[in-house]
Amino acid sequence: MTELSLTILDAPPPGLFERDATRLHEILPGPALLHLPGQRTPALFVSVLLHGNETTGWEAVRRLLARHADRPLPRALTLFIGNVQAAREGRRVLPGQQDYNRIWRGEGRAPEHQLARQVLAELDRREWFAAVDVHNNTGKNPHYACVNRLENRFLHLARLFSRTVVYFIRPDTVLSLAMASRCPAVTVECGQPGQARGVAHVSEFLEACLHLDHFPEHPLTHRDVDLFHTVATVKIPPSVRFGFGDREGVDLCLLPDIDRFNFTELPAGTAFGRVLRNDLQPFTVTDEAGREVFPRFFDINAGWIQTRTPVMPSMLTLDREVIRQDCLCYLMERLPLPE
Fold this sequence. Notes:
alpha/beta; Aminopeptidase; twelve-stranded mixed sheet; five-stranded mixed sheet; 8 helices; 17 strands; globular
């Protein structure tokens, strides 16, 4: 078993912020924690590149720190730079690696699990103002924020990024959930990598977080936030051969533009694709308790996979590798704000 060594830094090595994500390996041998001083404490914690192909967070941090090159940060900042080796190849995760955003529950014996425990132990030596984990989507999605607790401070932090907020507790191995016991924590999803709008949005959000003195006390209302609850995860079994819009050599033919359904409230009877084998169970659908709930959400009519109830998907993608590594999508329902 190969160990993963965590690099802990109190100052950036020369040239670090001059490199894009694919060149970080030239300076960092692997994952790194970088503690930067600021005018206020406790620090803001920011994590980037947990998935090596999701580069917007890194570019936003580079832009943020360039603005503060000749002046101190308004608040101390700790940056966790994740999967440097996957970033080198522009991939979410390398073969044989654990997903860097599925390792934070404190269990497991893989090198990535040991790394997660090391990072959390280091973080527990300090107090934190808030935590932000920056991600991209591979499919077409709006910018939105995710929280794992329906508490006022968490919702205000999320609203600072977007009025679209998703609450989820599965998967329970993500970094934001681990940080939620330490401070208000949020995951921000900022569209597809390589988009200037995403870099600008995240950079402005992080700047706002650094300037924030405290979280407001007043509760948010439905006029402030569109809140959704992730109720199920949809995966395609490894044995199922699938494609998009083509029927040659596949068992499951999904719509060629299925990612247009993201964050759209779909009525019952909406088709996701066609099953080309009569004996095929095309999806595994699990709820928050890990129960198989395919019949609750889907039906198969004349070979067409259709929604059985109104639902809103997120993170639908046309990237086959990401679907195999993670999932096809999540299913959400509207959620009233807590009173």
